[in-house]
Structures are given as C-alpha cells and as structure tokens.
Protein: Transposase DDE domain protein
Organism: Heliorestis convoluta
Amino acid sequence: MHSLPQEPDMMEDHLRIPNKKKRKKSNKKKNGKWVGDKVGREIEDFACYATKIHDFSRMAHQAKDSRKRAQIKAPIIFIVVFFGAFFSMVSMAQLDHWLKSKVFARFIPSRFRLPSHDTVRRALQKWDLDIQRQQHQEIVICYKEQKGPKKGSIDGLRVTAIDGVELFHSTAYKCKDCLTREKRDGSTEYYHSIVVAQQVGGGANIIYDWEMRKPRDGQDKDEGESTVALRLIKSLKEKYGKITDVYTLDALYAKAPIIEAALAAGSHVVIRMKDKRMRIMQRGHKEFSERSYDHFWEENDRRGNSIYVQAWEQEGLTDWDQVSIPLRLIKIIRHTTKTIIEGNEKVQVTDITEQWLVTTYTKTEVKVQTIARIACERWEIENVAFRNLKTFNHIDHCFVHHPVAIEALINFQVMAFNLKRMYFYHHLSNFRSWDIQLREVINEMREAARWGKLNLCRWLWKWGLCVL
Ligand SMILES: [Zn+2]
C-alpha cells in the first residue's frame, strides 16, 4: 500500500492565483488551435482553482465506497469520474477509451494504476452518497459566500428555477428505484427522473440542488414532480439559508402548497399559468378583456430583435383557495419583430406570444417589467441550461443502471457542471471576451491533459492518497 504525506499545507507561498494577464496572452487562437508556450495551462489553472477555492483535493481524499479489499482506492475513482464528467463523457465506453488513451494519466500519480471501466462501475454501485452530497453542499455554500447568486441577480433579485429533468428510460430492465408508466401500446416503461433547482440570470446558472423522484410504494402512485419540488424548496432553505429571493415555476407547479412553502422559506414566486379553469384565471380573463393594457414598453432580445410588450396586471386577488396572501395576476403580450429568409428574400414577421403569470410580489415591491424579465430568463434556462445538462453533460444517459450508481453519477455530473461554470463564468471575469464556446475550451483542456507537460497532481493530491 502506498501512502503520500498526509499533512496538507494549504497556505504555501508558491500557490499562485491564475495570472489573468498571462492567460490572455497565452490563449490566442490560431487556425482553431491554442498557441503559445502555455498550451494546457487552463486545465492546470482549473485544478489550482478547484483546490485553492473549493478544497477539491480534500474532497478526493474524503471519497469513500464500501468495496471490500479494493485495490484501486475511491479517491482515484473520484478523480477519474469527476474529470470524465468535466470533459462531458457520453458513455462508460468513452470513459474506457479515455482511460486507455492516457487522458487521465497526468491526473493520477504515476505509481498508481488507473481503474478499468468495470472497476469504476463496481465502485459507483457502492459509493458513499452522504459524503458526496456534503461536498456538493460545500461548493454551493462557497458560491453563496462569494456572492455568486447576487452577481447573477435580475434587477437585484436572486432567482431560482425549479424544473423536472427525465434521465433515461428502458423497457427491458428495472431497478428498485425505477418509476413506471404505461405506454400507448400497453407496455410498461421504466424511467428515472429528477427535479432540479437552478440559478436563473447571470452566466453561471449553477445547480443549487436536485432531488430524485421516488417510485410508488405499494398501491400509491410514483412521487409527483410538485411533491419533489416542495421537498426541494424546504431543503434548500435548511441547507443554504436564504439563497434565493424568488422561485420561478412552470404551470405544472401552480399549486397552493408550493406557494406556501416558498413563502415559509422567506421567498416569493413567479408562476406561469395555463389552466384557464382556475378561478383566478377566469377573473383575470374577464377583467383584462374589458380594458386596454396597463403598461407597454419596448426591449430587445438576445438576437437583437425588437419586442413590443403590453402588460395587464391586477393585485390583491384572493380567488386562490389555500393561499394565505393576496396574489397578483399579470398578462403579458410580446410582439417580436424578426427577419426571416423566405425563398431568397428577407421578410419581416411578427411573432405574438401571450403569457400569464401569478406572483406573490405586490406592485410596489417589484415592477411588472422585472417580473416579465424573470419569466423571460426562466424560459432561457429551460432552453439553455436544462438542455445543456442533457446534451453536453449527458445527464440523460444511463451509465450504470443501479440506484446508488445513478445517484453517484448525477452527483458527479452536477459537481463537474457547477465547478466548470463557476470557474469560467464567475471566477474568470473575462471569459465571455474570449469569444469561444465553453464546449470547445473543454475539448482543448482534455487534449492538453493528454499531451501537455502538466503538473496536475501537485494540486489534485495536495491531501495525499487515503489508505484505509
Ligand atoms: Zn431504474
């Protein structure tokens, strides 16, 4: 058994903060390749950041699983799976390929063996999830202390979206935590699904927390998304104190207990409304149809299209039973003028969209323009961040179909997603000016890890390897 010195010296003089001036110089791109003598610097800088700011080396050191007489220890598996997720692996086969093609060679001290993908699978099935959750929590607490939620606020309000993400489905194999649903042809499909709380606004959009939907117990139904959202709102408050001023929720979550839970946690809600049968909506339809809009303004979307917005609002509504405070109903109509190519000609068209919102904010607390912005950014999250989780981070791929391994892998994906985005969008203030997609930088980092002259172990193994 090997053992490295156990005493970390976190305050060493040579710990360097990434030098921004130098980075700018060394990151020039030429013909699609990074040039300069510092190729691969980013992955080293990231490792330095992760250990210096988030104590990443200690997290690796703490990692545990309950395999008996394991030859390859949990900290090594931790580093491999974390960076597999960081580099957006699509499958275990790809991880295996990376393991064989020396992608991880510089992440692990050379006297230790790299695991096979089977070893990774076995370890994940026995992973210690409590420690892992604790580590996730520490990362988010650190983000909060660094004023991350405030930095990404919308008109000064910290906003969080809650939404469901389906992971993967199968008709062939079922584990004990699978949810079930009947398909149209009468066959049964098994799937896993989570509910995620994610920051809205700013660039980082980190995931504050997530909860697994639990399967039916006896005759009961599978746990619904709104029940899980309720749990999430309560646990966010317990874990992080007040991390958000307002929750934005889709129509699926338009339920009195959720509004009450948010209020009890000291936050507000902005909820999209669709159900026209609800009394509050019926009243809104009647009142708003009888008068002209209360506000109008013009704005531009991210593509520069001009939008003409009309808004109606009514506060003090008590038509929603079980909600303890009066609500404010808002109707927004957006006229977006854009240019499209039809045949060979440019044509201007106007898209008209209608949106109904309910909020617990009064008119004097938050103006209607801000509520509209919150709802708009929420839609961005749905289209950018949740999709990003699926397409670039492959959260919907089944790596190992086993209840513990699924949870362990989501935790790794979330941890990698958060640290990646905190590094690029929160820590590096000038990343947007690089004018390059994050995905491309990550690919460059992976290649640099394979070929560059790097000293990653210096950062990743500051706490040594645990020998249990
Ligand atoms: Zn399952």
User: Anything to note?
Assistant: The chain is about 40% helix and 20% strand. The CA atoms of residues 187 and 333 lie 42 Å apart. The pocket of zinc ion is lined by residues 174-175, 177-178, 190, 192, 401 (CB under 6 Å).
